[in-house]
Amino acid sequence: xxxxxxxxxxxxxxxxxxRLFAPLGAALKPVPILESRGNRPLQMTFEDQLKILVYYHLxxxxxxxxxxxxxxxxxxxxxxIAPPGGIQKSAFFEALNSRGLDEMSxxxxxxxxxxxxxxxxxxxxxxxxxxxxxxxxxxxATLSMHWADYRDGANKAKVHLGFNVGQGIPQKFTLTEGKxxxxxxxxxxxxxxxxxxxxxxxxxxxNFDKWQTKGCHFVCRIKANAIKTDLRVNAVNPDSHVxxxxxxxxxxxxxxxxxxxxxxxxxxxxxxxxWVATDRFDLTAEQIASIYKLRWxxxxxxxxxxxxxxxxxxxxxxxxxxxxxxxAGLISYLLLAIYCQExxxxxxxxxxxxxxxxxxxxxxAEDAAATGVRPPFIFNLKE
Length: 383
Hints:
Blueprint: E1 4-6, H1 16-21, H2 24-28, H3 46-58, H4 64-73, H5 75-81, H6 89-98, H7 101-118, H8 123-126, E2 131-141, E3 149-151, E4 154-164, E5 169-177, H9 182-186, E6 195-198, H10 205-214, E7 217-222, E8 228-233, E9 242-250, E10 262-269, E11 272-278, H11 285-293, H12 296-309, H13 319-344, H14 350-371, E12 378-380
C-alpha cells in the first residue's frame, strides 16, 4: 500500500501542501485499510480522518463545528481536505470517538521515527547524551467527561510526555485523568540508554533505584531538604556556580533510602539554589546543571503546541476521541518539524507555519485560475 497524490493538470506534487504531507507516504505504508464494521460504507476513510485532523490543528480552528463548517463552505478545504461528497457531522464525530486509534498510533510511531532520523541534534546537547525531558500538562475537560476526574467541580485530563531535547520533537506519551500520578507514568516515557530530565514532582527514591536497574539514566531536581548520606564528596571549582557535588544515599535509612548510589549536584542561579539527583557519573557537575536547564524545552513545547495548534480545544469527549485529537496534534507538529527542516533548515516557528498556510492557499488559487477549475487533491492508501 502507498500514499499518492493525484492532480488535475497541475503541479501540486511540488507544492506546499504536498511537501507537508509527503512524510505520511512512508508512515501510512504499514497501516491497514480501515473497513466498515457493518453493511453501510464509511463516509470517510482513515486517510480522510487523518487529513482533516491535521488541518484542524494547522488552521487553528476553534471547535469541531467550526471545522465542519469550513470543510463544507471554504473552497480549499472542501476541495482538498474534505472527503469527496463531504462529511456529515454525525459521521465525523462517530468516527472520531470510536475508530482509527490503532491506525493513528501507527502513523505517529512511524512519523516519529522519520523525524528522529532526519532532524539534526542541537550542538549544546550532542555531548550530553540522549536527553528526554518529561512532564505532564493538564487539559480542561467538561463536567460530562466523568472519566477525567480531577477534583469537585472540575474535570481535567493529563498528557504525560517524553520530549526529545536534542531534536526538539515529542517522543512517547500517555493520557490519564487529571489526577494521574506523574511518577508512575514517567516509567513509560524513557527507554534504556536515554536520560530522563525531571522536575521535583518526579522525586521518588524507589524510581531512582528502578531506573538504574533498567539502564534508564536520570537528572531530577529534588527538594532542598532531601536527606543525604554522603559516601564520597567531589571537589568543586570555587569559581563555579556549583557549590556541592557528592555521591550519596538519598532518604532515611530503614524507611525510604535508596539502595543504589546517587550523585547529587547543588548549584545556584540568580540566588536560587538547585539540588539535582542523577546517575550520570560520567559528566561534570556543570554539565549536570546544564542538562537540568534544558528541561525548559518541554515547557516551551507545551506552550507553543497549545497556543498555535489549538490542541486543547476539545472536539471529542471520550478517552478514545481525546487520544485521537492528541495524536493528531503530535503528528501535526512532527510534520511541521520535518517540513521546516527540509525546506528552511530551521526549527518549527509560528512565522513558518503562517507562511506555509498562506502558500497553500496562494498556490491553490493560482492553479484554479490557470485551469479554470479547482484542482482535486486526493491522498489515500489505494495503489
